[in-house]
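Private note to self, pasted from the team thread so I don't lose it. Backbone tokens:
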């Protein structure tokens, strides 16, 4: 086929750099947005925080939100809003230079190709500025905690080597994953270590904190914890006997057989089981290796005069404005490198503020519609939650479902009932006998309530729960009840059986 040049006309949708930035800011969580704003403040001299009671050395009234020309005048100070800042900069543009900064960039360009944004900034290689440990540090692991105790224990070099090997074989739950023979085989044969020595070192490790660490199975884990209790603990010897000889019967919850084998009354067996249940079957979980994660609510909902009011959390995100002093340095009809840089930074600052304003407006619209739709939940709790999908909110606010998904991801709402992610208010529905709908969140709340009120000697099965829901007009299959029960972390009826 002979190559040739052909001219074609067509249309396609392309996102401008401004739109790309707005979408990126929209899907950031509050903590990520705070970091993004901090990086923007460090990289763009035209941006500055607006703090309450600011007092700049310059008598420039624009620093307090009033409109100004290039002349320095003294006016009444007032609080600056995003819109006032943008209008001020636009008035400054008309008075300072004739050619206006373009409102849009070409669609075939990328934001990083034109401006030095905070997203494209890389950490400095200077050791004084870049702290690697600040980005990679984590909480203490179980192995680190055990090694710290090992350093305090007097041991020979050989025993210490065995102890380090054993600690490496302990998982995050606190159990020894390898057998003692496998640990012995992994040691250097020249050490001439015997199996009894490995077991003795293991006994030393099992005396470390947390209690029960280094156990090879659940029975040994519970016995280790019982041995560390005071000898005056009531029913201690009976609990040790039960764990040592009848743990499998206790696991099957055959209390009648337990009472016959141990020759105990029901009340005595109940107290022994309570003592065993106070132990931790996963001792290693007490040592948290990951850093704690904090949640900052984006929206605050409160009730005032029988009306639910939605407000943005102003303390979560710092307020920004354009630095009037630097903006005044921009000269008209000046194409020097310094002036071009300052103009680009000024335009980037304007777009950044506009993107933050758009993010706040979109978040307020979505949160207001969610509160309007879920008033029953705010008034009465989970059982009054209504079915809601992204399409419902998208139609109400006139946006696409993908935009609603971005807004509701990692965004949190503070309500009198607690802090919830916005996605928590969206749930599927099932039909009712009256032709209505009931949300899956409400069904979970009802199941949780039924299980909490059940007879612990005869817990409700999934089929029985489905029958009780059907009596309330909610048509749910048994397997659906099982799915909801598992999502709530509720054990099956056979495992919920208790002694009164």
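Design output:
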């Amino acid at each position: 086929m002979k190559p040739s040049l052909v001219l074609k006309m067509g249309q396609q949708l392309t996102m401008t750099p401004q739109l790309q930035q707005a979408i990126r800011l929209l899907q950031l969580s509050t903590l990520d947005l705070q970091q993004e704003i901090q990086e923007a403040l460090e990289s763009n001299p035209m941006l500055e925080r607006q703090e309450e009671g600011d007092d700049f050395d310059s008598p420039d009234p624009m620093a307090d939100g009033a409109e100004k020309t290039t002349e320095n005048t003294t006016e009444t100070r007032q609080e600056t809003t995003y819109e006032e800042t943008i209008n001020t900069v636009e008035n400054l543009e008309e008075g300072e230079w004739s050619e206006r900064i373009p409102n849009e960039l070409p669609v075939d360009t990328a934001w990083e190709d034109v401006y030095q944004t905070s997203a494209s900034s890389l950490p400095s290689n200077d050791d004084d500025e870049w702290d690697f440990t600040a980005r990679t540090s984590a909480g203490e692991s179980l192995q680190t905690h055990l090694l710290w105790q090992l350093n305090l224990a007097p041991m020979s070099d050989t025993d210490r080597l065995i102890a380090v090997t054993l600690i490496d074989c302990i998982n995050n739950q606190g159990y020894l994953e390898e057998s003692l023979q496998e640990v012995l085989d992994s040691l250097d044969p020249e050490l001439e270590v015997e199996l009894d020595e490995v077991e003795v070192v293991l006994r030393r490790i099992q005396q470390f904190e947390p209690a029960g660490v280094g156990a090879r199975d659940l029975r040994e884990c519970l016995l280790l914890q019982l041995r560390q209790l005071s000898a005056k603990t009531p029913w201690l010897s009976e609990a040790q006997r039960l764990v040592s000889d009848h743990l499998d019967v206790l696991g099957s919850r055959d209390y009648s057989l337990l009472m016959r084998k141990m020759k105990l009354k029901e009340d005595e067996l109940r107290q022994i089981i309570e003592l065993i249940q106070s132990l931790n079957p996963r001792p290693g979980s007490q040592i948290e290796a990951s850093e704690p994660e904090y949640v900052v609510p984006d929206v605050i909902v409160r009730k005032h005069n029988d009306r639910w009011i939605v407000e943005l959390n102003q303390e979560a995100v710092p307020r920004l404005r354009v630095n009037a002093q630097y903006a005044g340095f921009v000269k008209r009809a000046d194409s020097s490198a310094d002036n071009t840089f300052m103009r680009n930074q000024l335009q980037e600052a304007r777009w950044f503020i506009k993107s933050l304003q758009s993010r706040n407006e979109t978040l307020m619209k979505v949160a207001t519609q969610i509160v309007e739709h879920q008033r029953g939940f705010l008034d009465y709790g989970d059982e009054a939650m209504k079915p809601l999908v992204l399409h419902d909110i998208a139609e109400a606010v006139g946006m696409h479902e993908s935009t609603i998904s971005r807004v509701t991801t990692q965004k949190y709402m503070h309500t009198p009932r607690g802090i919830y992610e916005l996605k928590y208010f969206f749930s599927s529905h099932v039909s009712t006998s009256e032709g209505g709908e009931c949300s899956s969140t409400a069904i979970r709340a009802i199941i949780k309530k039924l299980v909490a009120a059940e007879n612990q000697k005869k817990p409700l099965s999934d089929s029985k729960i489905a029958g009780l829901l059907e009596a309330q007009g909610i048509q749910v299959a048994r397997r659906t009840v099982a799915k909801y029960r598992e999502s709530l972390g509720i054990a099956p009826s056979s495992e919920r059986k208790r002694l009164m």
